[in-house]
Amino acid sequence: MIDIHDIWKIYDVGGQKIEALKSVNLTIEKGSFISIVGHSGSGKTTLLSVLGGLTKPSKGSVRINGTDIWTLNDRQLSAMRNEKIGFIFQFSSLIPTLRAIDNVALPVIYANGGKKANRSAVYEYAEELLSTLGLSHKLQSFPSELSGGQQRRVSIARAFINRPAIILADEPTGDLDTQSEEEVMEFFSRINEQDHTTFLLVTHNLGLARMTDKVHTMKDGMLNSNNGGNPA
Amino acid sequence: MNISQTSLALQNLARRTFRTYALLLAIAIVSGAIFSTSTLMWGVNNSLSKGLSKFGADLLVVPKGSMISMKSALLTGEPSLFYMEGGIMEKIASIKGVKSVSPQLFLTSVDGDCCVMGNAFIIGFNPKTDFTVLPWLEDKKERAFQMDDVIVGASNSYNVGDTVFFYGQNLTVYGKLGRTGVGLYDNAIFMNIEKAYSMAEESHRLPKVAKLKLVRGQVSAVLVQTEVGSKIPFISFTISKDPDVKVITAGNIITSVRQNLVTLFGSTLVLSFVLILANALMIGAIFSTIVNERKRELGILRAIGASKISIFKLIVYEAAMLTSMGGALGVFLGIVIMRVYQRTIIFNLKALNMPYLWPPASSIIILASIAIAAAVVVGVAGAFYPALQGSKLQPYDAIRAGE
Questions:
Q1: Res A161: pLDDT
Q2: Cα separations (Å) of B396 from A46, B5, B304?
Q3: d(CA B248, CA A102)
Q4: Range of the domain at A136
Q5: Number of structural domains, chain A?
Q6: pLDDT under 50 in chain B at which residues?
Q7: Do A114 and B15 touch (CB under 8 A)?
Q8: Residue A9 lies in a domain
Q9: Is residue A161 a part of any domain in this protein?
Q10: The A85-88 sheet, strands edge to edge
């Protein structure tokens, strides 16, 4: 379970205080499939990064399974990001010098505190994920040889490589055509059902948000109470 | 190949080939210069201390005029043909603290039609009182040293059992000395001093033989061995009272060579250390740029589980890999250049009265390891601050900075 309590994020820009998040409270049950919609600059991405341990809130707590992640030390927080959270960013987040399969397997080098994991099993799973996402013919391609949509699908595959409990996705289908978008959402739903993986999607695409179980709205750094969405 | 922290660092280096090669070359030049300089200095120093310790004499007494050329003779094997009366030996032997004295007589052979085989530096010694030649025989015949025998230095091409022909005399190579680094010994041919006198006398009687201008009883040098605990400066001072002689001590020679060493290599070493500092700063600046260029990637790595220390290690690995490869390349180039110009180097060192022995393989490996390790230290030191800055980046800020 994820419990976000009274989260504030205030940026100091040239001496001016910008409140990106204002007292955000949110509880997400394990296995939920929810989305947050809002205009650009509403604070969606900032909330996602606070929740994922990427940026420290100015105030408040984020508890994952009872642990306040912002009280963890760097090693523990990094391990948590590696093992429990899968990120899908809204921009291309691939390492340009690595092939698609290596980009997907990349998190394994930080697994178990950098100790050797069963890498062949990881590579098998990476291949399986890429095949599921329609990229079985692009395993050895570098990012520069992939289209924007293909790069996005590689990023999605990477988010799942460590079988995380939580997927935090920022505009996950941004570069995809309608058919690919539906395939990806179907893939998300299947994983959500099979593994009870928690999904939190941030998007300004209302059509996409409607495919989730619950939709929250953000405006000016504040999270509004549930306002619809599609019940499961 | 499966992905690993090392392969990731290697692939990062391969990303900007020109920059990587330029850095590699800069490091190679510095480590090559350090390796070559230290190898040459080591060679000279080692040759000197090894040679002089093997030499066995605490003092060398020579005719006054031959002082400078005598040092040269000792170190490079160039002949010095000044003579003094052998009676000086008795005076020296009577000085308190002197354990033994032994004469040496220097002759040079000349290229001739009939009488010599090539040009060689001949030293007559007294086998009965000698303490500097016979103890260092490495290879010899299974019998006692005889009147018609010679002993050859290590640099000589003759082998035990060969026959040599000097001033109308056929002589047998009795033995060969181990390499000493003292040019005088490594290049010379040693014969019984009595044989040298008789050979000089014979040279005047035999037709078509170059005449040796030498009078029986004259010597070129007197080697002095002192008692343990005796005051060498006092003995040296006492001998120096004779206005016709000069005393050379091992210290004289070492000081003179070291001064030459400092003159020759000092500026190279200073320049190398300045270059090391410049390289460290250059690596710092370049890795600072690299960290800035890759902010987003570093942020992404943090997002997928890299800790601060992992990011720090990744950047430092890159620098260490680059500089170790540069260091190895520098050592390789240094060895190649030293081997290619081996003769020129030794010739130039000899011209500065510096004997030279190539260090043994084990020492070269040690010096090479030090040069490579120094290059790695430079890399790590240069990349330390940028790596620290890179590791301190907040993941989200790093990702946003790259947008």
A1: 93
A2: 9, 22, 12
A3: 72
A4: 2-227
A5: 1
A6: 111-117
A7: no
A8: yes
A9: yes
A10: A85-88, A166-170, A198-203, A33-37, A214-219, A222-224
Query: Which of A44, A110, A152 should one mutate to test binding to chain B, selecting the residue with the greatest count of B CBs within 10 A?
Result: A110
CB A60 within 8 A of CB A7: yes
Residue A141 falls within a domain, yes or no? yes
Give the whole-angstrom CA distance, residue B289 versus residue B402: 13
Query: Does the model's ipTM exceed the 0.95 cut?
Result: no
Q: Judge whether A232 lies within some domain.
A: no
Interface of A with B (CB under 8 A): 46, 49, 52-56, 74-75, 78-79, 81-83, 87, 89, 91, 93, 95-98, 102, 105-111, 114, 119-120, 123, 158, 162
Report the SS3 class of residue B228: coil
Q: Are B357 and B50 in contact (CB under 8 A)?
A: yes
- Strand, helix or coil at B248? strand
Q: Give pTM, 2 decimals.
A: 0.69
Mean pLDDT of A91-111: 90
Q: With beta carbons under 8 A apart, name residues in chain A contacting B14.
A: 97
Q: CATH no. for residue A217?
A: 3.40.50.300
Cβ-based neighbour number of residue B70 at 10 Å: 25
- Name residues whose C-beta falls within 8 Å of residue B269's C-beta, 6 or more positions apart in sequence: B34, B37
**How are strands ordered across the β-sheet holding A16-28?**
A16-28, A2-13, A59-64, A67-68
Write the CB contacts of B354 (distance below 8 Å, at least 6 apart in sequence). Answer: B44, B48, B75, B257, B260, B261, B264
Contact B8 A91 (CB under 8 A): no
Q: Which two structure tokens, joined as six digits, stand for A100?
A: 């698609």
**Distance (Å, rounded) from C-alpha B298 to C-alpha A7?**
26
